[in-house]
């Protein structure tokens, strides 16, 4: 075979992998949309059901408990029925949640439907990185794994755009009537459309070759590998078999180590928790009400939320361009340093807010600083931890424990997300500047943790993970 033919074959394989990885990443889009769409509806939900800050926090965070559950069970299910089947289950749950959330009778059944959607988010957040890592060539795995985070931030941006467009159509308020439903109900219902598309795509993409080898479906695995890998399929199958260490399905008990779980699993769990403890999802769940709390009008606060999502997308594109060039660890170090400074500046700016007759305002110069520093925080997060955490969880564990370890790491991420989300309304009411200083402290901790404990994974095949 000539050099040109080899190069052409490799290009064809990569194009095919990009297409199926993109289809799998649509679960990330729904992840981003579902977790962020509530942002534009928070105020309307409070008004419609007459609930305070604490119960609002519980309702918003309810989905995150479902996400932790979904992430925890997804690995075991994926090892039993396959990666693509699990995607289909998640898609159906997304559709059910979207319809149920849009038509609640009380705040409690709204919370229940949010939990159902959360289970779907948890499953999608685990299965997307796992599937993409298992079909991607080592040289491109970082960039292809980054498609998950790109899809997440696009989902966040689209949810903000939909929220803004719907509110604008109803006169600028999410509480206003728009046809037979309130505007906030339409915000939640729209999710059923991309969920249906996800269901269709998950039904046509090929199963992971590593799952097929584990399940003993060698002929199917060979067929998939011939479409996605440029090297000999039989050689790759033997390599996968050796890395799996037998045909037994992974159990959570396989993760046990001297200090509860294996050291590599502790590192993954810590990375997953620290990604949330910097407070990133406060920006996406509460940014509208956050800006309103310092005197910004509702319509403008929704526009600022959309601007934040655009910054998020730009940062993610930067990470995708760099993750396979400079590596995972350097990106995390730069991101942690940038987030620490940006969060500290945001807290400092909010400390100058004035309250007069119950109305909160922020002087222009401090409002400008808050906007710039909050946007810088989002950029540094998106260009580092937003992408790299998901890439690492998909690739850092040995093949024999990957599904179970990834499920535990993802569940940890969602539990940390829940802790931050449910506590923020009360912390905001207590002391907003100090809240941001606490997030800055976690960003600084993340810097020291990465330098001390994280090993670089750039350029290594999945079968090499855990060998040194």
Automatic annotation (TrEMBL):
Topological type in the membrane: Multi-pass membrane protein
Transmembrane segments: 14-33, 53-74, 86-105, 111-132, 144-166, 186-205, 259-286, 302-323, 330-350, 370-393, 405-424, 436-454
Domain Major facilitator superfamily (MFS) profile: 20-458
Gene3D superfamilies associated with the record: MFS general substrate transporter like domains
Gene Ontology MF term list: transmembrane transporter activity
Location(s) in or outside the cell: Cell membrane
Keywords: Cell membrane, Membrane, Sugar transport, Transmembrane, Transmembrane helix, Transport
InterPro entries associated with the record: MFS_dom (IPR020846), MFS_sugar_transport-like (IPR005828), MFS_trans_sf (IPR036259), Myo-inositol_Transporter (IPR050814), Sugar/inositol_transpt (IPR003663), Sugar_transporter_CS (IPR005829)
One GO CC term, this protein: plasma membrane
Primary subcellular site in the record, as a coarse category: membrane
Family (UniProt): Belongs to the major facilitator superfamily. Sugar transporter (TC 2.A.1.1) family.
Protein name: MFS transporter, SP family, sugar:H+ symporter
Originating species: Actinopolyspora alba
């Amino acid at each position: 075979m000539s050099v040109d033919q080899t190069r052409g074959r490799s290009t064809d394989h990569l194009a095919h992998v990009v297409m199926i990885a993109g289809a799998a990443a649509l679960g990330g889009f729904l992840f981003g949309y579902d977790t962020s769409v509530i942002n534009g509806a928070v105020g309307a939900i409070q008004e419609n059901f007459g609930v305070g800050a604490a119960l609002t926090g519980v309702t918003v965070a309810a989905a995150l408990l479902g996400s932790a559950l979904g992430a925890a069970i997804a690995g075991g299910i994926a090892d039993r029925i396959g990666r693509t089947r699990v995607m289909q289950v998640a898609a159906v749950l997304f559709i059910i949640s979207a319809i149920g959330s849009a038509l609640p009778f009380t705040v409690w059944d709204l919370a229940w439907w949010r939990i159902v959607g959360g289970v779907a988010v948890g499953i999608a957040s685990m299965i997307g990185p796992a599937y993409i890592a298992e079909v991607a060539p080592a040289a491109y795995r970082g960039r292809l794994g980054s498609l998950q985070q790109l899809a997440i931030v696009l989902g966040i941006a689209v949810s903000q755009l939909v929220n803004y467009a719907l509110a604008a159509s109803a006169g600028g308020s999410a509480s206003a009537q728009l046809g037979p439903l309130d505007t906030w109900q339409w915000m939640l219902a729209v999710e059923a459309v991309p969920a249906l598309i996800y269901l269709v795509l998950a039904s046509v993409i090929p199963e992971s070759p590593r799952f097929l080898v584990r399940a003993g479906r060698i002929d199917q695995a060979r067929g998939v590998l011939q479409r996605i890998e440029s090297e000999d399929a039989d050689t790759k199958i033997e390599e996968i078999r050796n890395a799996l260490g037998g045909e037994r399905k992974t159990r959570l008990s396989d993760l046990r180590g001297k200090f509860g779980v294996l050291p590599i699993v502790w590192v993954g769990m810590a990375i997953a928790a620290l990604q949330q403890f910097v407070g990133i999802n406060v920006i996406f769940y509460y940014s509208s009400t956050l800006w309103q709390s310092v005197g910004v009008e509702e319509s403008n606060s929704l526009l600022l939320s959309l601007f934040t999502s655009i910054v998020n997308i730009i940062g993610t594109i930067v990470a995708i361009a760099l993750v396979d060039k400079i590596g995972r660890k350097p990106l995390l170090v730069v991101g942690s340093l940038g987030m620490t400074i940006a969060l500290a500046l945001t807290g400092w700016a909010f400390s100058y807010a004035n309250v007069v007759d119950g109305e909160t305002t922020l002087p222009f110069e401090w409002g400008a600083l808050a906007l710039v520093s909050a946007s810088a925080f989002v950029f540094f997060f998106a260009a580092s931890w937003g992408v790299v955490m998901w890439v690492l969880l998909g690739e850092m564990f040995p093949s024999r424990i990957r599904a179970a370890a990834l499920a535990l790491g993802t569940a940890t991420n969602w539990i940390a997300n829940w802790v931050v989300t449910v506590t923020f309304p009360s912390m905001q009411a207590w002391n907003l500047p100090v809240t941001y200083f606490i997030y800055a402290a976690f960003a600084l901790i993340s810097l020291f943790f990465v330098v001390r404990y994280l090993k670089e994974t750039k350029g290594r095949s999945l079968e090499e993970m855990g060998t040194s």
